[in-house]
Design a protein that fits this description.
Length: 145
């Protein structure tokens, strides 16, 4: 009887979380391409990210790229790796602002925010396409829907 109760609770929880993913296009797009959707806290702000192994990109930027809805500075900077200025630091070298975000476990991530508000994790941008741990993101960015 206890197993049935626990199984029922687990199924309700999984069903509810699947419903949330289905109603959030950023989360759904991230998961379709085998990414992991994360929300980082930066002060009172939330940063929606999609991680593919070690590589992270803003969930909105990824969604816009995959659905051919727009070109973001973060995706373009990653794919071309052309820095636009020499302000300093990885983000600054690409004309972006450095934002520090934390996940629910307290792990810190440095995120580059571009003028169009698109996001990419700093080390992801620094290492670029073809780097170890970036295969999932590179595959995901190789095609659109």
């Amino acid at each position: 009887m206890m197993r049935v109760l626990l199984l029922s609770i687990a199924m309700i929880f999984l069903g509810a979380s699947s419903g949330i993913a289905a109603s959030n296009p950023w989360m759904r797009t991230c998961r379709i391409d085998l990414g992991q959707f994360w929300v980082l806290k930066a002060g009172s702000e939330e940063l929606a990210m999609c991680f593919f192994g070690d590589a992270g990109v803003g969930a909105e930027a990824f969604f816009l790229f995959k659905t051919n809805s727009g070109v973001t500075e973060a995706i373009e900077a990653y794919k071309s790796r052309n820095s636009s200025s020499a302000r300093g630091g990885v983000c600054g070298a690409f004309g972006a602002e450095l934002v520090e975000g934390k996940d629910t476990n307290g792990q810190t991530f440095n995120v580059c925010r571009f003028t169009d508000q698109s996001l990419i994790e700093e080390t992801t941008l620094w290492l670029g396409p073809g780097s170890a741990g970036h295969g999932g993101l590179d595959r995901a960015l190789s095609s659109t829907y």
